Amino acid sequence: MDKLVIQLLNESRERIYTRWMDEMERVRDEHRLQSITDRAYEETNQELFEIIYTHIEQNVHKPTDRMTEFAEHLMKIGWRLSYITQGLQNFRRIILAIILDANQSNEKVFAMYDEIDRWIDPIVNQLINESAKNWENTVSIQKVALQELSAPLIPVFENISVMPLIGTIDTERAKLIMENLLTGVIKHRSQVVLIDITGVPVVDTMVAHHIIQAAEAVRLVGAQCILVGIRPEIAQTIVNLGIDLGQFPTKSTLFKGMKSALELTKRQMIELE
Amino acid sequence: MNIQSCVEVRNEWDIVKARQSGRNIAKELGFGTVDQARITTAISELARNIYLYAGSGEVAIERVENGGKLGLKIEASDSGPGIKDIRKVMEDGFTTSGGLGAGLPGVKRLMDEFTIDSKENEGTIITSIKWLR
Ligand SMILES: Nc1ncnc2c1ncn2[C@@H]1O[C@H](COP(=O)(O)OP(=O)(O)O)[C@@H](O)[C@H]1O
Ligand SMILES: [Mg+2]
């Protein structure tokens, strides 16, 4: 960085600090940091300010390790990245004002502006990139976790499996239901599969369509579907929609479905004496 | 609590969002579980149609009153391709996407009032009301 800029920054450190702290106080609400104690907020600001200054001392154009760690820590405890990027932007705004005050020639001022942009922008960009990467990572891990939970086929008795569905069914999940049904039916040699929709909040035509298609596919691999867990209000809306679920048996509860699955596989439940 | 809401529909999760706010408002207005399910399902159909056929649009839900009657109004609007033959899309089983083709006629049966206002290449506004009994 230009020597003059560095000199200016070091000379005006106190002035920059006071103005910067004022600015940070002003934007505190935007980062939803009202619940943090005043003291903690001030201390964090101080630390951030110092970290920004170490960038100047070390003359680096990317986040220092200390900055990266600081950012990671803050995000971990629930602060927003925008707190730091705003801190850097406020910092830029203040030093630009100070440069203007320093009565340099226009050319010099412009060169200094340019210098400071080139210094701050990469730091901001890299912080944002890293945090975006972290987010993407988290989201993709959660997606996998969710997928594992989303459409399990559970072999309950010999030749009888249950697929309990809980939550909203979107296109992606509908695909998984189909896949897991078909692979599961073959793997467990199921003859009857109970699809339990007790936990599905809305059965619209798309969900119904997917269920019909899944049941049809199961039939093609030689097994049979029973749709169970149809709540009374869902039964009503299905009728209103005019959807015909007549191709396969439906039962109101898993228990009733299980009884007919046993019958279909020539077994029954008996009470012991 | 808000007796009015507007959800932009751009992806599948927005459909869930629209549904949820519809269910909340229906509950707030005093609809029973069956009508809540009907309203939520109707919103789901309309929002999904926006997502599928228009790409994006919005679903507005609000409380309406008419001569002492209280109701919930859904207004689904988009600036998509529009619907050329409204009579046709109201037939059970008519679909251009390999769906069940039961969405629009279904919504009409789920709700009490239903109107389609659509112009080709300009968009579609579907308004539907359920009255509280
Ligand atoms: N918002 C819309 N814009 C344009 N076309 C639509 C819209 N909504 C529905 N349609 C047309 O009406 C047809 C019937 O819709 P619907 O009854 O919901 O059945 P499905 O969605 O299963 O096809 C659709 O296939 C589509 O061609
Ligand atoms: Mg539809």
Automatic annotation (TrEMBL), chain A:
One Pfam short name: STAS
One GO molecular-function entry: oxygen binding
CDD domains (alphabetical): STAS_RsbR_RsbS_like
Keywords, ordered alphabetically: Phosphoprotein
UniProt cross-references to PROSITE patterns, sorted A to Z: STAS
Chain coiled-coil ranges: none
Keyword Nucleus in record: no
Cited SUPFAM superfamilies: SpoIIaa-like
STAS domain segment(s): 150-265
PANTHER family, A to Z: RSBT ANTAGONIST PROTEIN RSBS-RELATED, RSBT CO-ANTAGONIST PROTEIN RSBRC
Name by which UniProt lists this protein: STAS domain-containing protein
TrEMBL record, chain B:
Any matching Pfam family: HATPase_c
Top-level taxon: Bacteria
Keywords of the record: Kinase, Serine/threonine-protein kinase, Transferase
Xref: CDD domains: HATPase_RsbT-like
Organism: Guptibacillus hwajinpoensis
GO molecular-function term, one example from the UniProt record: protein serine/threonine kinase activity
InterPro entries in alphabetical order: HATPase_C_sf, HATPase_dom
Domain (Histidine kinase/HSP90-like ATPase): residue spans on this chain: 34-133
Name of the protein this chain belongs to: Serine/threonine protein kinase
